Input
Amino acid sequence: MNKHAITDSERSQLLKTTLLTGLQGRSLQRMLDSAIVEEREGRSSVFRQGENADAFYCVLNGYVRLFRLSREGRHADVRICQPNDVFAECMIYGGDDYTFNAQTADTATLARFDLGTVRRLAEEDSNIARSVMTCLSQHLIDTMHCVGSDRLNTAPQRVADYLLERCPIDRGPASVQLPFQKNLLAGMLGLAPEALSRAFSTLRPRGVTVRGRMIQIGDVQALREVV
Amino acid sequence: MNKHAITDSERSQLLKTTLLTGLQGRSLQRMLDSAIVEEREGRSSVFRQGENADAFYCVLNGYVRLFRLSREGRHADVRICQPNDVFAECMIYGGDDYTFNAQTADTATLARFDLGTVRRLAEEDSNIARSVMTCLSQHLIDTMHCVGSDRLNTAPQRVADYLLERCPIDRGPASVQLPFQKNLLAGMLGLAPEALSRAFSTLRPRGVTVRGRMIQIGDVQALREVV
DNA sequence: CAGGCAATTTGATGTTCATCAAACTGCCTG
DNA sequence: CAGGCAGTTTGATGAACATCAAATTGCCTG
Output
């Protein structure tokens, strides 16, 4: 793993994240100064469940799986993090140890924020505190949405939801380029890879065509009926 | 619905919640002053998905379901809130509208916190900001745990988990008194009521006996094997 | 371009759980 | 105590999804 200070391009990318958008001037600078950038190999562990929590992260590049393991060794993704996503910020006041595992999917670039440092900054600077609260709020809403979606929707509905959320238009044909392997999408939707594949098959009569990572949608309006 | 200012007993109860434990003196007083207590009928809506979010709540008495509805009218609980639970605090910086529904189960007493007021207090008082972050952090961890648990564990395992979490002891026999109807427990575990009932049946050979809300556990250690 | 590996798809099968219907239980009220 | 009602359990059935195995595709490297 390769570590370095923040470059200008990384800096401008970080400005777009939930964590730092909304910050300016000194508050922003203090947060940026507290971060370190890490280059990581594919499938390398960022942290493990039960380890002492000393940092949270922002994805600059690549993808990170957050997951839990069952006693029998089965594996369930809790969240798939994409570029600009912040993860494990819940450890800021959430207890001493990580409660889940984090592992890079491909090679990934992460901005690492020291928890102790950010706690101190949040204490001193109400703008930073507000940014952390915004991040936590948004993340909590998303996770509650995930619980509801898992409990309410079938696999094809969840896939349709995902596609529609990434559709720029309201009606007519569209195409969506998956930003990662179907493997990760399956984990994100709480499905086995086979189940994701079959969900796509189910959507074919509804005008959804799959060619690798490129998904063609015959009619967005029609797809909306599935949900 | 009946509204009134906080009484002394309600005050002392609020001190035990994640939101206010950790606060003292002036910070605590400001939060308490901002709250109003509401007495509510059973099955009354606290707020609905899509409504403008102007408050969050702490349960003083009774139970509140947080749930989402599918387009076809199906219903999925996202969380069951018990006395001392805080809910909808994610709306503090999470957007303008509630993203789920909240409805009382039995008659319930709620402390209502105005979002605008608490935003202002958090801005001015870093102790209050920290309390809100603690609340959000804990809640987010719990919700992520819920996603993992739904995806990883079967119904009997989730029931066993629930019972074990409420078991004071480590080994030998124990008994757990459910604090509410099985209906609510089912919702909490993401199950239909029938599925909960069958999960209890599955656990009978493992030494779990059900009589109304009283659950007898033959051997805690043995039950732990189920998980 | 050939070969090889990983990702994805497809098929077959079994488990888990939701759903509907009906029986049963407990509790409350008249 | 009878009746009624909500909550719970049980039975029967089907839908949804995981799992295992095998075929296929896609992509990368030599």
About this structure: The radius of gyration of chain A is 19 Å. Residues 181-183, 193-194, 196-198, 200-201, 212 of chain A lie near DNA strand C (CB under 10 Å from a C1'). Residues 2-151 of chain A form a domain with the Jelly Rolls fold (CATH 2.60.120.10). The longest helix of chain A spans residues 126-152.
